């Protein structure tokens, strides 16, 4: 029976590893496509809108995030001893914090931008923000940088505490005893800082729903049936924000599971599973954005059509 569970564990780990690699490839293609289309458009028109700037920055940050995961996997499987050094632990944690921070906060700025552009309130404070949307996005990013600095400082402090304790008690193995505890504490700090953009995105989602409801009420009072342009814009923005929140929730769930299940951190299958759930966010969110953006969607359909034609010509030959 023990032999059976061992075989099952190996099969599960291999399957999850294949899924993880597929997610990495899919994510690199999607985010690379977004960055390429917007950069080509920027070169052609010599200018770039705020939305396209955010989408380009988001895709570049996601490419960095996916590359970092790939490098981490190579180091873990090829050079596992490197992960026990203090300098490497600090470097990897800081790199992960940077990658997660910019990927999530830039996506949050996109949600804020959609809300300010599409929502319709007569409140003076909202109108003040709506007229200064670029400044709102800039201030949001500035605040996020302050949170980033605080996150890195606290994470490095926690890492220093655990590495110092290990150096003072070398009788215990770092990988099996100290690393899971250090990793758990750093992830707990991550959860605290990740809750800020999540609450902000959730707030924009709820306010967009309220804006749609008030707009629908006004439309009924004026006896205008069907969907107008503003209602359609509300629905498109809501679809994008909903997809973002769902994928963001899976991302947070993967971190919560690692924090809550201390013993599972020692099992490779569990670690790979968490990585599969984690990487779904930066990989698949790009396709949601591509489908929700008319220019990106048309470019994607054009590329797929050309690939289909080339494939058909190859078969004819």
TrEMBL record:
Query: Any transmembrane segments, and where?
Result: 15-38, 50-75, 95-116, 136-154, 191-214, 235-257, 269-290
Against CDD domains, the record matches this protein to: 7tm_TAS2R14-like (cd15019)
Report membrane topology.
Multi-pass membrane protein
Task: List the taxonomic lineage.
Answer: Eukaryota, Metazoa, Chordata, Craniata, Vertebrata
Q: What InterPro entries does this protein map onto?
A: TAS2R
The protein's UniProt keywords, in alphabetical order, are: G-protein coupled receptor, Glycoprotein, Membrane, Receptor, Sensory transduction, Taste, Transducer, Transmembrane, Transmembrane helix
Q: Where in the cell is it found?
A: Membrane
Protein name, please?
A: Taste receptor type 2
Taxonomic superkingdom: Eukaryota
């Amino acid at each position: 029976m023990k032999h059976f569970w061992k075989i099952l564990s190996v099969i599960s780990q291999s399957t999850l590893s294949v899924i993880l690699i597929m997610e990495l490839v899919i994510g690199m293609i999607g985010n690379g496509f977004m960055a390429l289309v917007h950069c080509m458009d920027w070169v052609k028109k010599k200018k770039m809108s705020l939305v396209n700037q955010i989408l380009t920055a988001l895709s570049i940050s996601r490419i960095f995030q996916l590359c970092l995961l790939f490098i981490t996997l190579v180091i873990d499987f090829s050079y596992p001893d490197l992960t026990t050094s203090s300098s490497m632990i600090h470097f990897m944690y800081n790199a992960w914090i940077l990658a997660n921070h910019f990927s999530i906060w830039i996506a949050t700025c996109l949600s804020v931008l959609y809300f300010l552009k599409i929502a319709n309130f007569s409140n003076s404070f909202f109108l003040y923000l709506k007229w200064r949307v670029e400044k709102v996005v800039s201030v949001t990013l500035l605040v996020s940088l302050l949170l980033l600095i605080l996150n890195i400082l606290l994470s490095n402090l926690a890492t220093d505490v655990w590495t110092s304790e290990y150096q003072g008690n070398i009788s215990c193995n770092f990988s099996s005893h100290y690393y899971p505890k250090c990793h758990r504490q750093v992830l707990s700090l991550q959860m605290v800082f990740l809750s800020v953009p999540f609450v902000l995105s959730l707030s924009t989602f709820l306010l967009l729903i309220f804006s749609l409801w008030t707009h629908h009420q006004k439309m009924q009072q004026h006896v205008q049936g069907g969907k107008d342009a503003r209602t359609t814009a509300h629905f498109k923005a809501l679809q994008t924000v909903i997809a973002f929140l769902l994928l963001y929730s899976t991302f947070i769930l993967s971190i919560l599971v690692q924090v809550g299940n201390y013993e599972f951190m020692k099992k490779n299958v569990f670690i790979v599973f968490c990585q599969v759930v984690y990487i779904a966010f930066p990989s698949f969110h790009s396709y949601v954005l591509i489908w929700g953006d008319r220019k990106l969607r048309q470019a994607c359909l054009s590329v797929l059509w050309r690939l289909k034609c080339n494939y058909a010509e190859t078969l004819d030959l």
